[in-house]
Amino acid sequence: MNWLTDYVKPRLSKVIRKRESPDNLWHKCKACGQMIFHRDFVAAQKVCANCGHHDRVGPKERFEALFDEGIHQKVDLPTVKDDPLKFRDTKRYTDRMKDARNKSGDTDAIQVAKGKIGGVESVIAVQNFFFMGGSMGMAVGEAIVRAAEEAIALKAPLIMVTAAGGARMQEGILSLMQMPRTTVAVDMVKEAGLPYIVILTDPTTGGVTASYAMLGDVHIAEPGALIGFAGPRVIEQTIREKLPDGFQRSEYLLEHGMVDMVVHRHELRGALRRVISLLMEKHRPVFHQAAQ
Questions:
Q1: pTM of the predicted model as reported, rounded to 2 decimal places
Q2: Which domains does the chain have, with CATH numbers?
Q3: If DSSP codes are grouped into helix, strand and coil, which group holds residue 111?
Q4: How many other β-carbons are positioned within 10 Å of the β-carbon of residue 261?
Q5: 30 known ligand binder
Q6: Which of 266, 205, 196 is nearest to 230 (CA)?
Q7: What are 207-239's pLDDT values in tens digits?
Q8: 174 among the known binding-site residues?
Q9: Does the annotation list 186 as a binding residue?
Q10: Is 51 assigned to a binding site?
Q11: Which long-range contacts (CB under 8 A, 24 or more apart) does 129-132 make?
């Protein structure tokens, strides 16, 4: 019998318990591999201090970062039928929806809120990539229509923050129908003489890019965001050619006139304030004419 291992060690273990460290204590940057203290990473709005990589964030963080003092009020959104086509692949669509709702705490892939930006009443719609890849289904379409109606009622600019892989395949043609519906919603805002501003984040692809994501009066992109219709791998396989470095990234699109500016996340609120101030000044005579 070993007195130290059989008697002393068990009693010491009870007195001195191993301190457990939380699983999310550190974050590893997806771009450079730098280990970042998670609390610092969140405080930096999930931007890597080493390489500047912009990680994905949800609607809650977006609202807090863009509205003045983070003060905002959620806009109630219409409910839609969860599984109109009774779709099933390897898993029932209803089960996928339940999983996404449990993980994200949201009912679908978009949230809408109203508040002030630079003192100007504004409406922001934010897609949530963490909810089924931010895919556009009937709920997203209804939410954008509701956001447009709210902006018109408040005579406020509408800001759309995109983050999506495209249309939701589980809703088939019904998801594709949201492309013309959201286009009409954007036209409603513009006909009311109000600004429609789009903030393109990583990734913005598919049917979202082919509709409301590229209809803004001003397009602002975050650094390094993937923006396009088909992905670069699909394009390379189709044309059988190597694409240029940085193809479909924010900076490439800026050079080729597809976006108006690329803005660091920390400077986004300030840029948005300036753009809203300029556009609302430009649109103010329209309000006077409408009032008369």
A1: 0.88
A2: 1-55 (no CATH), 57-291 (3.90.226.10)
A3: strand
A4: 12
A5: no
A6: 205
A7: 999 999 999 999 999 999 999 999 899 999 999
A8: no
A9: no
A10: yes
A11: 129/56, 129/58, 129/163, 129/164, 129/165, 129/203, 130/56, 130/58, 130/103, 130/104, 131/100, 131/101, 131/104, 131/106, 132/96, 132/97, 132/100, 132/168
